[in-house]
Each structure stands twice: as structure tokens, then as C-alpha cells.
Specification:
With about 280 residues, the protein is an alpha/beta fold. It contains eleven helices and ten strands. The protein starts with 5 loop residues before the first helix and ends in a 7-residue tail after the last helix. The structure holds glyceraldehyde-3-phosphate and zinc ion (ZN).
Length: about 280
């Protein structure tokens, strides 16, 4: 199976009333965990890598690992660039076989964000690759993108409508109260704002910073029209928690596989739970 553009998966989710999980990976074990979980739940998933993940592992390695996963996968997979900011990297990812890219111009003034998104769309359209853009600022840290929480700016619904009309982008990431990384308190989503954006914007909506958001809030966000839900931190926490436990229980262990296998299993369990929460279990057909 080859990669499916994320836009195709998200439009199916939009008509089906569920959300597709977009899970970050930067190594073999986490990638395998995501794909195993998707197969166990018979769910479509989006595999995503940030520029930081690409710097860590190398674009060729990440693309080759994901291709190996897709070759035998029993479920539809998209390969997506997460939080791309550089059109040059977008082009490299398209050449490397990514089926979807995000161009994150959310730090730019509106007109510049529109221009950057259009520039990327031109490249992506030629290759049949779908494009996600971002409007409004999501606080916290996703690799090198850091926005102080007080600076965080929620998405303006009218501006979102204008942005999508002007760009023709395939999906839109919105800022409605989520943050990247670990939350200090309980996150409170601006669900009214989300509904308003949904009314005005026809394309699938994306929720970033979804780790640590209570299940009920996630369900409500899906009911109000979110179709892509990004998860990174919850996988990292489960993976490293299992690594710490294995190292404590087996201080003399010298085989990394004995430490990383339980970590991979822990990641599978997290991803399976998320898939069920998002309503995408059984939607692989
Ligand atoms: O782009 C990736 C996600 O927005 C990650 O969010 O830190 O809540 O897992 P997270
Ligand atoms: Zn994000």
C-alpha cells in the first residue's frame, strides 16, 4: 500500500463524524507502535514527523522506515510533515514521498501566512500532496516552535473563513485553547469558538496539542467538527515511562531491545486508546 493524502482520510472522517489520529514519530519503535495500534484497531492513521524529527533521524531514514511500514500495512497510512515552516523542506519531503505537509505560517502576519501557504500549495498540488495550514497561535513547544502562553492567540472565525477562501488549503489547524507539551493545569477549550469556525470553514479542522486534553473535551471537539487530532507528548510520556521502569527493574541489562520492547508496547497501548477515543477504530475500510 502507498501513502494516502491526509486530505482524503480527513474528508472521509468529516462525512463519517469521527477524527483521524495524527501521531508523531522519530524512531523505529514509535513508528512500529503507531502502525501496530492502527492495525489492531483497523483504523486509518497519519504518521507525522516534525522538522526536528527529520534533523534527528534524517529525512531518508524516516521516509524509508515509513515506506517499509506502509508496504505491508493492512490500514491506510498518510505520511505528513508536521509544523513545516520552510518551503524548501516541504519540497524535499514531497520528493521523499510524503503524501501530506503542514505549512505553519501561524507566526506570520495574515497576508504573509496566506502567501506562504499558497506557495506551498502550488508545489503540493502538482504532486497530489495535501496541505494543512495554521491560523492563530497554539502555545507551548513543538520542537523549535515556542510561543509564550500569554502571547498565544486564538483563531478568529471570520479570519479563518477568509484564510481558507484565499488559499484553498485542504485542512486548517486552529488555536482554541490547546497547547503543545505537558499541561500545567487542566486545559479549557473554547468550544464556542470551535463551533463558530466550523460554521464558517468548510475544510477539515485540526487540533494540535491534544495530549493531556481530557477525553470528554476531545469527544466534544470531534462532535463540533474536528477531524485531525495530533498526539506526540502522550506517546513520549508512555514510551519513556516504560524505559525508566525497565532500567530500574533490570539495572544490569545490556541489550537495548529488552528496554525498548516494553516501551514500544506501552506506546501501542496509548495509540490504541486514542484511536478508540477519536472514533476511527474500524474505519480502515
Ligand atoms: O503537532 C503535534 C501535536 O500538536 C503534538 O501535541 O504535544 O499535545 O502531543 P502534544
Ligand atoms: Zn502541533
Amino acid at each position: 500500500m502507498s501513502f494516502v493524502p491526509a486530505g482524503v482520510l480527513l474528508r472521509a472522517a468529516q462525512s463519517g463524524g469521527y477524527a483521524v489520529g495524527a501521531f508523531n514519530f522519530n524512531n523505529l519503535e514509535i513508528l512500529q507502535a503507531i502502525v501496530r495500534a492502527a492495525e489492531a484497531e483497523k483504523a486509518p492513521v497519519i504518521l507525522q514527523a516534525t522538522p526536528g524529527a527529520i534533523r534527528y533521524a534524517g529525512l531518508d531514514y524516516l521516509a524509508a522506515l515509513a515506506r517499509a511500514a506502509a508496504k505491508n500495512a493492512a490500514v491506510p497510512l498518510a505520511l505528513h510533515l508536521d509544523h513545516g515552516t520552510d518551503p524548501g523542506l516541504v519540497e524535499e519531503c514531497v520528493r521523499a514521498g510524503f503524501s501530506s505537509v503542514m505549512i505553519d505560517g501561524s507566526k506570520l502576519p495574515l497576508e504573509k501566512n496566506i502567501a506562504l501557504t499558497r506557495q506551498v500549495l502550488e508545489v503540493a498540488r502538482r504532486a497530489g500532496v495535501s496541505v494543512e495550514a495554521e491560523l492563530g497561535r497554539i502555545s507551548g513547544t513543538e520542537d523549535e516552535i515556542t510561543v509564550a502562553e500569554r502571547e498565544a492567540l486564538f483563531t478568529d472565525p471570520e479570519e479563518a473563513r477568509f484564510f481558507v477562501e484565499q488559499t484553498g488549503v485542504d485542512s486548517l489547524a486552529v488555536a482554541v485553547g490547546t497547547a503543545h507539551g505537558v499541561y500545567r493545569g487542566e486545559p479549557r477549550l473554547d468550544l464556542e469558538r470551535l463551533s463558530k469556525i466550523r460554521e464558517l470553514v468548510p475544510v477539515p479542522l485540526v487540533l494540535h496539542g491534544s495530549s493531556g486534553v481530557p477525553d470528554d473535551a476531545i469527544r466534544e471537539a470531534i462532535a463540533r467538527g474536528v477531524q485531525k487530532i495530533n498526539i506526540d507528548t502522550d506517546i513520549r510520556l508512555a514510551f519513556l515511562g516504560a524505559v525508566r521502569q525497565a532500567l530500574t527493574e533490570k539495572p544490569g541489562e545490556i541489550d537495548p531491545r529488552k528496554i525498548l520492547s516494553p516501551a514500544r508496547e506501552a506506546a501501542v497501548e496509548v495509540v490504541r486508546k486514542k484511536i478508540r477515543l477519536f472514533g476511527s477504530a474500524g474505519k480502515a475500510g
